[in-house]
Amino acid sequence: MAVIAYNEAQLKELARLMRAEAEGDGKLGMLLVGNVGVNRVLAECLDFPGIDTLSDMIYQSPGGFEAVTQSYFYQRARPKDIRLARRTVNGEEFDPGDDSLWFYRPEGECRPRWYGQTNVGRYKSHCFYQPSQADCPEIF
Known about the structure:
The chain is of the alpha+beta class. The chain contains four helices and four strands. The protein has helices at 8-22, 26-42, 54-58, 79-89, and strands at residues 102-104, 113-114, 117-123, 126-130. The protein has a four-stranded antiparallel β-sheet. It starts with 7 loop residues before the first helix and ends in a 10-residue tail after the last strand.
C-alpha cells in the first residue's frame, strides 16, 4: 500500500531521479534517495509545504535536485529502477534516509549540520540530514 499518491509517470520520474542522484552508490543508495523524496512529499514543514506530488518534489525550485539540470536525468527509466522507486513509495524505509529530508555529496567528511539540520549518517558518497521531530512530525 502506497504511503503517498502517485501515478506511473511520476513513479518513472522518481526512478530517474534516484538513478541520476545515486546510481554510483548502488541499490541502497538509490533507495535512500527515494526515501528522501517520499519524505519531502509527506512533509508540510520547512522548505516543503505545498509539495504534494512526486513531480512537485522532483522539480521544486528553489530547493530541488541538481540532477534535473543534467542530461542523464532524462534517460528513460529502467525496469529495475522503477522497482526500486515503487519500494520507496510503498513505504520501505532505509537508514539513514528513513527520516531525512536532505542529502548531499561532500568532497570530504560529512558536516555535523547542514542548513541547520543534523547529520544522521552517511552511505557511500552521500551524507543524510534530518530535521527535528518537533519541526517535521509528519516524517517520523
